[in-house]
Design a protein that fits this description.
Elements: E1 6-7, E2 10-11, H1 12-19, E3 23-27, H2 28-41, E4 46-51, H3 58-67, E5 70-73, H4 76-84, E6 92-94, H5 101-110, E7 114-117, H6 120-129, E8 134-141, E9 151-152, E10 162-163, H7 164-168, H8 171-175, E11 180-186, E12 190-191, H9 196-217, E13 223-228, H10 243-260, E14 265-270, H11 272-275, E15 279-291, E16 294-299, H12 307-310, E17 322-324, E18 334-339, E19 348-355, E20 363-366, E21 388-393, E22 396-401, H13 406-410, H14 425-429
Parallel strand pairs: 3-21, 4-5, 4-14, 5-6, 6-7, 7-8, 8-10, 8-11, 11-13, 13-14, 16-18
Antiparallel strand pairs: 1-2, 3-15, 9-12, 15-16, 15-20, 17-20, 18-19, 21-22
The chain binds pyridoxal-5'-phosphate.
Pyridoxal-5'-phosphate (PLP) binds near residues 51, 53, 95, 227 and 371.
């Protein structure tokens, strides 16, 4: 956010009045800055791909496309989003451990840069469906473990990718391919990495694995996807990545690799790092109440739209940055637990958050909420549905997703008339009947 209370000069209170709450607001400038800052520093051999899953709104994807980012997608709808956002086929990759034949066919039909295969079994399926000569990347589950990730993906038994050791022994399977062409590897080590040196070490490890696999198995390295997983700071004890340190280190190892493999496209795929900081989740306080000496603000949105801020499943509840929108400049001298409207004690956006005095009707903003918001939340829980999403671009607010209506929520259900109640067994027989086997 340009500032917590205005987005490109538009007061958040105006946005809430115009579009209602709960509301996600995305600032296209902040989104663009995250990309260009990294792009400016990264080695030119590296292409940045945006991971649609972090925030798949088509207008967000279109901003990324307009800046020159590729798109990494993982479902039919995300692939369709890439087309809708205008991302060129050669700037799209598709990955995911359970791709359907329908998805694989759609990838082949659109002619994307590469399908990333996550198992030898999938590779066989793709080979059967593919016209000759199509490029494929193999996702490797590296033999080493992740440095500094909050959620690690490599080095352990996983549904993702093909174990490095197994790939080394799969020469005959690769030689048996009739249509697809293995042209590189992909690895993704984990998410929420805040340690720059960890990213550098992961990159060096993945590039080393790529060299070894290509040499042992005899496929060219036209593309190597080094993953990403760069984090942003959410909690009090966290600090944003040191971007200079990260890019100095990554550029050194990529530079060496690029000198040996001129023309090889190195992909870095990022979701949270690009989209996380551009978004704010805006809710309105409905009630301010006390329970056993503690103050609660009950708002109109919570876990159903922002599971990440609620942090269900985390060992300790830690708060995303949360602010009062209306009471700019007032001292944050009260402690509130900020909850949503759901009937579960888990629905807590922030516990013991310092805020200025909150009154019913006040707006509260959860910052750094541009990634893994509604699409990774249980939006149908209690049937509140999807919130509205607004993208502020060129100092204009655009509604980029309509809030779900009751009609949207019920329209996909089917009412089957319940069977007419049968005769009461007690009146029929005088005694309760046992159900025949
Ligand atoms: C989720 C995911 C990403 C994006 O992760 P971020 O941590 O948001 O950058 C990239 N690649 C793969 C394979 C993923 O599963």
């Amino acid at each position: 956010m340009t500032d917590a209370f205005t987005v490109q000069g538009i007061p958040v209170t105006d946005l809430a009045d115009r579009f209602g709450t709960p509301l996600y607001v995305y600032d296209a400038e902040v989104l663009a800055d995250a990309y260009t800052e990294l792009r400016r520093r990264l080695h030119p051999a590296v292409d940045i791909f945006y991971s649609a899953k972090a925030n798949p709104n088509v207008s967000v994807c279109a901003v990324m496309r307009s800046l020159g980012a590729g798109l990494e997608v993982s479902s039919l709808a995300e692939l369709a989003t890439a087309r809708w956002a205008g991302t060129a086929p050669d700037d799209v990759i598709f990955l995911g451990p359970g791709k359907s034949e329908e998805e694989l066919r759609a990838c082949l039909e659109y002619g994307i840069a590469a399908v990333v295969c996550e198992s030898l079994e999938e590779l066989e399926t793709l080979d059967r469906l593919s016209p000759p000569g199509r490029r494929v990347l193999l996702r490797v589950n590296p033999a080493f473990t992740t440095k500094g990730a909050r959620l690690s993906m490599g080095g352990k038994p996983r549904q993702f990718g093909i174990d490095h050791e197994m790939l080394l022994g799969s020469g005959s399977a690769l030689r048996a391919l009739r249509n697809v062409r293995v042209a590189g590897i992909h690895a993704y080590m984990g998410t929420r990495i805040l340690d720059a040196d960890g990213v550098v070490q992961n990159t060096a490890g993945i590039l080393a694995a790529a060299r070894e696999l290509s040499a042992e198995l005899g496929f060219p390295l036209e593309t190597v996807d080094i993953g990403g997983g760069l984090g942003i700071a959410y909690f009090e004890n966290e600090k944003d990545l040191d971007l200079d340190r990260l890019t100095d280190g990554v550029n050194a190892v990529v530079g060496e690799f690029a000198a040996e493999h001129p023309g090889c496209r190195v992909i870095m795929e990022l979701g949270r790092y690009l989209a996380g900081r551009c978004g704010m989740y805006v809710v309105r306080a409905r009630y301010v109440k006390r329970s056993k000496g503690e103050w609660f603000v009950v708002t109109d949105g919570g876990m159903n739209h922002h599971m990440a801020a609620v942090g269900v499943g985390s060992f300790v509840k830690r708060n995303f940055p949360i602010r009062s929108i209306d009471r700019h400049g007032e001292l944050a001298d009260r402690m509130y637990t900020v909850t949503g409207p759901l009937c579960t004690p888990d629905d807590v956006l922030g516990r013991r958050v310092a805020l200025p005095e909150v009154r019913p009707g006040d707006l509260i903003g959860v910052e750094r909420s541009g990634a893994y918001g509604p699409t990774s939340s249980p939006v149908l829980f209690l049937s509140h549905g999807y919130p509205a999403e607004v993208l502020v671009s060129g100092a204009t607010a655009h509604l980029v997703r309509h809030r779900d209506t009751v009609g949207d929520l019920l329209g996909r259900q089917v009412l089957v008339d319940p069977p007419a109640p049968g005769p009461d067994p007690v009146t029929v027989t005088g005694t309760a009947q046992t159900v025949p086997e």
